[in-house]
Design brief:
alpha/beta
Length: 222
């Protein structure tokens, strides 16, 4: 089953946890963070009842990685390759509203001499200029690598509706931290998250980039 936050859940009488990252679900609607504890709800003839919300027994969740997500992530990967050609860490991002790309960018802190010029920030700035508003309600941000805390914070302020990322970043990826902060009411906005879309391609692009830099003796950076 899949919750409204796009986190795929393994729901049974004993355990409920996120199957994507193998950690407890952070979805507040379907219950609180928990591991190896009784399922916070009950099964009924009409479906699953969780904290007053019912999921019908014939509930058919949408595919986690649909064609639109893959097409938009492919566009973000093309931008990431542009960044690699410019000597930057290959990360790309696009902002989509109503099926149209209104912002895009690749990682460029070296070229711009700007520590905030991450792909997501560049794309969000362009999208806000085009929308004429610093808020982007309903927007979906596609980015090739799980965003850092700065970029997730910018998405919170922009009031986006959804984040889709490719490869997970176990070092500085901040999606899980942001979800925990929202769970504690430390953030005033939350958005749906889908991870792993074309994640293998995104991860391979980053690995190849850093492997090339090590061979050339350029070290590594992020």
């Amino acid at each position: 089953m899949q919750c409204t936050c796009d986190i795929v859940l393994n729901l049974n009488a004993q355990i409920w946890e996120c199957k994507f990252c193998a950690t407890p679900s952070l979805c507040r609607r379907w219950g609180q963070k928990s591991r190896n504890r009784p399922f916070p709800g009950k099964f009924t003839p009409g479906g699953v009842q969780v904290r007053g919300h019912a999921m019908p027994s014939n509930y058919d969740p949408p595919p986690p990685h649909d064609k639109i997500d893959q097409r938009m992530m492919a566009a973000a990967l093309a931008l990431a390759r542009q960044g690699a050609e410019a000597g930057e860490v290959p990360m790309g991002a696009v902002v989509v509203v109503d099926g149209k790309v209104i912002g895009q960018g690749f990682n460029q802190p070296l070229r711009a001499q700007d520590p905030t010029a991450h792909a997501e920030i560049v794309a969000l700035r362009q999208a806000c200029r085009k929308a004429g508003n610093y808020r982007l309600p309903g927007a979906t941000v596609y980015v090739t690598l799980e965003p850092c805390l700065m970029c997730v914070g910018a998405m919170v302020h922009a009031r986006i509706g959804r984040l889709v990322y490719g490869a997970a970043d176990p070092k500085v990826g901040a999606v899980r931290l942001a979800a925990e902060l929202a769970d504690r009411h430390a953030l005033n906005h939350r958005f749906a998250v889908t991870g792993g879309v074309l994640g293998d391609e995104a991860g391979a692009l980053l690995r190849d980039h850093f492997k090339t830099r090590r061979v050339r003796g350029g070290g590594s950076y992020i």
